[in-house]
Design a protein that fits this description.
Blueprint (H helix, E strand, L loop, with lengths): L11 H17 L18 E6 L5 H12 L3 E6 L11 H11 L2 E5 L3 H10 L4 E3 L7 H15 L6 E5 L4 H13 L2 E5 L15 E2 L3 H4 L5 E4 L12 H8 L6 H4 L7 E4 L11 H4 L6 H19 L3
Parallel strand pairs: 1-2, 1-3, 3-4, 5-6, 5-8, 6-7, 8-9
The chain binds phosphoric acid mono(formamide)ester.
């Protein structure tokens, strides 16, 4: 049994196997209806709990569909409706759920909740996003890059904007997959110091994206940020919008990614999001394939 808690908590070999497996599984069901079962059924007779303490579209639907394609069953649980949201400890919740289900995916606020769930669960636990990281998203992003432009090793990836939880998983991935990660954003929104050494900072966005292989944007106000910070953040980040002029400075075959949901024409213009460099919907699709491979890894299949 393996947990999938973070990219930096998973070996480089395992990460590579997950990505390769995800490509193979995607190719195997190309052109099939989304509801068709996979040829093999590694999750047959398995029950998966999907716990959400925050909103979700992609994570919720892609995990649910992925489990079903592999022959398993799901229960989608809202944290607020569980006793977990009314004082029951995470440890007790983990031990109880482990008697009912074979795998737990949780989207939560504090990283400590995830770690405690993993400590007390006797079934694998997957990180579906915390305030600190979003590893499933970045596994899908690495898969998407390699699908379009080949191995990511040695490539230049430029993150524009807030040094948030999605960036943190990109930083972990930069070390494991050996790519060059550049952060361009305002100093007050720098990534957490624990990530130092995993990326370079170039304050000027025009300079940062020179010869980039991949340019990435994300929402300027994350789910865990107070809405009162919105105006200040917009003022801080306006100069880091990904628009056509900025994309023109990247390589001709550069890709543009955004994990979505987006605030169109804020962090990135619609002309970029819908333009020739954009692979945002392949990214969204690849959540499904990457997470199926992650679940197989967790269950040793
Ligand atoms: N990118 C992402 O995690 O999307 P959701 O919040 O819709 O799950």
């Amino acid at each position: 049994m393996n947990h999938f808690l973070d990219i930096n908590a998973t070996s480089a070999n395992a990460l590579r196997e997950i990505i390769d497996h995800a490509h193979t599984m995607k190719q195997a069901r190309a052109g099939q209806p989304k509801g068709m079962l996979d040829a093999d059924q590694p999750l047959a007779n398995h029950m998966v709990a999907l716990i959400f303490e925050k909103p979700s579209t992609r994570t919720r639907v892609s995990f649910d569909v992925g489990v079903r394609q592999m022959g398993g069953q799901t229960m989608v649980l809202s944290g607020a409706d569980m006793q977990l949201g009314h004082g029951e400890t995470i440890a007790d919740t983990a031990r109880v759920l482990s008697r009912y289900v074979d795998l737990i995916m949780i989207r939560t606020f504090e990283e400590q909740t995830l770690l405690e769930m993993a400590e007390y669960a006797t079934v694998p636990v997957i990180n579906g996003l915390t305030n600190r990281t979003h590893p499933c998203q970045i596994m899908a992003d690495v898969m998407t890059f390699e699908e379009h432009n080949g191995p990511i090793k040695g490539k230049k990836v430029v993150w524009c904007g807030d040094g948030n939880n999605v960036f943190a998983s990109f930083a972990h991935a930069a070390e494991k997959f050996e790519f060059d990660l550049v952060f361009t954003g305002p100093e007050p929104l720098d990534p957490e110091p624990a990530l130092n050494g995993l990326y370079r900072t170039v304050r000027n966005p025009d300079e940062a994206v020179q010869a980039a292989d991949l340019v990435v944007a994300d929402t300027w106000v994350s789910m865990h940020d107070p809405q009162s910070a919105r105006e200040r953040r917009h003022n801080q980040l306006r100069g880091y919008q990904v628009n056509d002029a900025l994309m023109d400075k990247a390589k001709d075959d550069a890709l543009f990614m955004h994990c979505l949901p987006a605030h169109r024409d804020e962090e990135a213009t619609s002309s970029v999001m819908d333009g020739p460099h954009s692979v945002i919907f392949d990214e969204a699709e690849n959540r499904l394939h990457a997470q199926k491979a992650i679940m197989r890894y967790c269950l040793g299949r």
